[in-house]
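WP5 quarterly update. Target: Myotubularin. Source organism: Lates calcarifer. Length: 598 aa.
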Amino acid sequence: MHPVNSNKQTQNTSRESLRMELLADVCLLPGEDRIIDKDIIYICPFSGAVKGKVLITNYRLYFKSSDDVTVTLDVPLGAISRVEKMGGASSRGENSYGLDITCKDMRNLRFALKQEGHSRRDIFDLLFRHAFPLSHGLLLFAYVTQEKYEESGWNVYKPIEEFRRQGLPNNKWRITFINKNYELCDTYPTVLAVPFKSKEEDLRRVAAFRSRGRIPVLSWIHRENQAVIVRCSQPLVGMSGKRNKDDERYLDLIREANDTIKLTIYDARPNVNAVANKATGGGYEGDEYQNAELMFLDIQNIHVMRESLKKLKDIVYPNVEESHWLSSLESTHWLEHVKLVLSGAIQVADKVSSGNSVVVHCSDGWDRTAQLTSLAMLMLDSHYRTLRGFQVLIEKEWISFGHKFASRIGHGDKNHADQDRSPIFVQFIDCVWQMTKQFPTAFEFNERLLLTILDHLYSCRFGTFLYNCESARDQHEVRSKTVSLWSLVNSKMDIYLNPFYTPESGRVLYPVASMRHLELWVTYYIRWNPRIRQQQQSPVEQRYKELLALRDEYLKKLEELQLSDSSPSSRLANSPTPNTSSSTSSPSQQYTHLHTPF
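Structure tokens (predicted):
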């Protein structure tokens, strides 16, 4: 054989074996298909240029290094917001020709290819096509995956059951199906709770005076004092200061339901923004709403939040801005926004806890409103602090009430500069994380759950966060054609449980929302930095888990000893003592009150 050919053959064989090794490394999901694999150089911001192979499927981009430096990347295509060509055929300098990828999850990727023969054309076209399927007439991966789980996560939240858990309907609040065909409001759920005395006709007249027909409806009721959290959109007051007697009367019915003296209306916006909204036909409740007081919470709009997170990304990726860290962090204003959202929710929770009903709105009632109602409910109701209860909270206040996930995240859409994109839900999860830090024993779930939720907010592997509202989800048959994220979570619950959790049903949590007590969520925002990643689980948590396992082991041994003690042969030997209950109640029942003090 000619030596050149044999060399080529050896190269091809080693290349093929690397490819097989790469494919063996990736555990493809059912329904996930290989699109292309290619030799490539990853320009790693931490290790420099790394040679390896990239595999692109209809779900992910996977890279594995072939160098001595071990680098792997596993990026769901849904997390990509932008793909650009870097350099041209005549670009000079090493590794100056390739691809620049911007991600939605706080990282960017850069790959270099050989300059000859349009070597990037195929990979660019295929990556662009599969990262943005909706822009190319393709299906989102959630519709392609063949994953199967024993329990369907679509059954986690059932509106009637959740209202029943809250003690509804009662003699002051009723359930209405006026929106069953989405005719009253196309961005609201089909099942709504409204004042008992309101008539269907009243609801229609109120809808005409509220932005996008999003009328005030009940989110949560306090079991003891019957105070409620009601959510809606802004009233259509406009420049001329329009009034609507039906809307005024309707808010008074809400107030009367538990004899609140003054109904508090929390407008999430800064005062100036609310006034400016009058120019576009919106506005806020004025003095004509008697027995009501209006409070502005000063939370900025979606555009301000988007720019703030962009600034945060600039100071943490790829390198953490070390020299002026504190001033750099402050200049992003991210924690300041988190503080304002949290302190708004604290005010809502405190008002309701003291027996006063509240109404919460922003402009349309699907961004800041969802943040405030869900966080206040988390503070007031320990059920939402359990693993399943938290799933219900997200399904109810965010998904069913029409937070515009599709517009805010841009699933499968190539328009990365779309002004509708905004990290409102990420900010909510950050607020939840801040609460878990301040109350480490109050939540049944751990940080891993929050990270998993945010990863799949982008991944498009599950149907949970797709589309803007329930009517759109019905239209696209999300429940029957895709899998719920909660199917995955509830199939391996143990990894999402907080070992420090201590159930306390009546406790209201008031986090401290001052800048001194808020932290940057490093394990989310800076997790791509290898220095951060090396800091494993906290030693205290690790030790505590070991102690719990030990306790379980001893309890099991104790149970076995008791069983052998109560077996017929041992019973003959030991005559029973009259008043012992040890064999009737299990050891775990006897010892559940034991909590390791910290």
